[in-house]
Each structure stands twice: as structure tokens, then as C-alpha cells.
Amino acid sequence: RVTPLKAGTLSAPPPRVMAMLQTGMGRDFFGFPQPTSALFQAVGKPVRLEVRAPPQQGRPESFQNAIGSAFSIEVQAPRTVVRVGDPLELRVLLRGRGRLQGLTLPDLHAAGLSPSEFAVPKEQPPGELLGADAPGAGGTPPAGASGAQGKLFKVQVRLLSAAARQIPALSFGYFDPEKGTYQVARSQPIALSVQGATVVGAADV
Known about the structure:
Layout: E1 8-12, E2 16-27, E3 33-43, E4 47-51, E5 63-76, E6 81-83, E7 87-98, H1 108-111, E8 118-119, E9 128-131, E10 149-159, E11 166-167, E12 171-176, E13 181-186, E14 190-191, E15 193-195
């Protein structure tokens, strides 16, 4: 598998393989039978690839580098009762038919988290491959297979405002090469119970 890094036309020379193959049986110096062999060569056809970049027009803000079809996004929060200033782990599961090894999570503010209500880390988590794309798994599942491929991201966000009432539906943009257009998948919102930050005095400390 190769991943094109830029648009353009790629031309590869004809593939060639050479091998020493057995052609029959003969006899050695002492008269004992021994196999005879000869050098053979097989040559294939040259390869020409036209690499097209995803279009700029119509690109959603939540598009990062996802190319494929039937993508979905699911967001889970282990706890939904939080205080202002508390860290909150979000588990973001991306599924779809496409190459997931290099898939990265889009900026969560661009995906739908309000910057006034949630702080997000500057560095994106690497993610964990699940199913058929996980290391050691046996290849890509057939088209239409449900839940066979996925990548799980665990992100620590921080609640900034008591006005937050939910983790909103997050969007995930991807380019579908079969349709030739961008598509957007959305998660379900998660209700939050938010309490104000606790203020302590010097005596309490």
C-alpha cells in the first residue's frame, strides 16, 4: 500500500522479477542425479496513476484528511456531572470504509465545541485502531461490513463555563471519492449537569 503525498501524474516503470527456476534433471560429476536450472525473467506493464487532490470548494471546517465512504462519528463521556474547571474525557469513535491508519481527529472547536465553554488540547491524540485496521488484523472487511473498522480517540477537554448544558453534536467531514463530494457525519449530543466552580478561602486551604 502506498499513500500519495501530492497531486499529479505518477509513472512507474514496468515491474520485473528474476528467478532461478528448475528446468529438469541432470547428473553431476559423479553420475548422481541433480536438478538443472535456468534464469528466467517476467516483465509486467508500466503503471500510470493520476492523483487528484480533494477540492477546496465545499470543504467543511471539520475536514482533516479523511477519504472514504460511510463514515460515522460517535462521542461518549464517562461522566456527565461536572464542575466548571474540571477535566472531562471524551471518547470519539470514528468508523468508515477507508484508510484509518493515518486518520487524524479534526479540531474539536471546528467540529462544534464552543471555545467559550470548552478548552481543548493543542496536540491531537494519536488514536487507537480497532477491528480490521488494527495491527495484526487480517485485512480490510468487505464493503457493507458493519462496525468492522474504527479508530478511537481519547481527548481531555476542560469545562470553562457553567452555561454549558451539553456536549453538542460534533461534525466530522470526509471526502467520498465515489461521489466526488464532501460528506459530513454528526454525533448525538450529550446532556451535561454542570455545577459552578467551588471557591475556597485561605482558611480552607
